[in-house]
Amino acid sequence: MSDNATFINLFKNQLRNTPPKIVVLTGAGISAESGIKTFRDNDGLWENHRVEEVATPEAFVENPALVYRFYNARREQLQSASVKANEAHKALAKLEKAFQDNLLLVTQNVDNLHEQGGSNRVLHMHGELLSARCSRSEKTFVWRDSFDENTPCPCCGGKTLRPDIVWFGEMPLYMDDIYNALSNADIFIAIGTSGNVYPAAGFVQVAQEAGAYTIEVNLAPSSTNALFDESITGLASAEVPALVEIIINRTAGL
Ligand code: APR
Fold first, then answer.
1. What pTM, to 2 d.p., does this model score?
2. Contact of 100 with 154, CB cutoff 8 Å
């Protein structure tokens, strides 16, 4: 990626003499090089299942055993030795160090690779694999092992534990915090997301209306590519570290 990229707003912010406020949205593409399959790249199947079979509240009612088994397998895969944070995750941790509260990192991913890469403040808007939720109290618990309908809930002892995942048709998490940050953003960066799933796919418009400079980093142009001011096509592990370096260098001393 060339440092001659436009980055108009970065200059504007330099004139304002204040560090830019940045919102980063990540999707499955940032974890692809860490060994976790994306949702829509191959045959339309997610780890051999149609999304409706495993990622909807209706599927959980109809075939809970399958849904538990599916997420148990994903949780186990995430914790296998071969799955590790890649250079893109690490670069975003570096951006957090440089920008602190001026950066909000929002991920649609349910893996913990941002945290493994060193990020401390990540909003998992679609939930987390290493977490279980009581469907009665909505309390969540760090959970690394497999569980199913017979696993007693730590808070009520009932058979109420479900994967702490936001399924299709359910409301994503932290939406107030996210929209608040988008409405104040100077830079919005979407990384490794196909732009097919709302509300995340609409974040670029909210940021743009707030006057943010918008950048997409993706292997191929996403469905919402035309809405971005700048599009960087390539592997996240190469393009994200390069972009982070440019942002840090351009804003040094602000
Ligand atoms: N670097 C950058 N981008 C990549 C890479 C890579 N190495 N590999 C794949 N991509 C891109 C693909 O081109 C694709 O556009 O990442 C995108 C992944 O898109 P999806 O699989 O649709 O994932 P995502 O956008 O995160 O899905 C959103 O849908 O199924 C639900 O809740 C689930 O959070 C998920 C949501």
1. 0.95
2. no
Cis geometry, peptide bond prior to residue 57 (ω within 30 degrees of 0): no
**pLDDT of 90-122, one tens digit each?**
999 999 999 999 999 999 999 999 999 999 999
**How much distance in Å is there from the Cα of 31 to the middle of ligand 1?**
9
Tokens of 94: 């570096």
Torsion of CA 6, 14, 180, 3, to 10 degrees: 30
Q: Which residue's alpha carbon is nearest to atom 34 within ligand 1? A: 108
27 CA from centroid of ligand 1 (Å):
5
Beta-strand pair 122-124/103-107: parallel
Which residues does residue 190 pair with via DSSP β-bridges, in sequence order? 25, 216
Ligand 1: does its nearest atom lie under 6 Å from the Cβ of 40?
yes
Instruction: Extract the runs of DSSP E, i.e. beta strands, from the chain.
Output: 22-26, 103-107, 122-124, 127-134, 140-142, 161-165, 187-191, 213-218, 230-233
Q: Which residues are catalytic?
A: 126
Place of tokens 């919102």: 23
Atom of ligand 1 lying closest to residue 39 CA: 21
Residues 25 and 198: beta-carbon distance below 8 Å:
no
Q: CA–CA separation, 163 vs 38, rounded Å?
A: 19
For the cut 50, the answer to whether the pLDDT of residue 4 exceeds it is no
Tell me: the pLDDT tens digits for 186-215?
A: 999 999 999 999 999 999 999 999 999 999
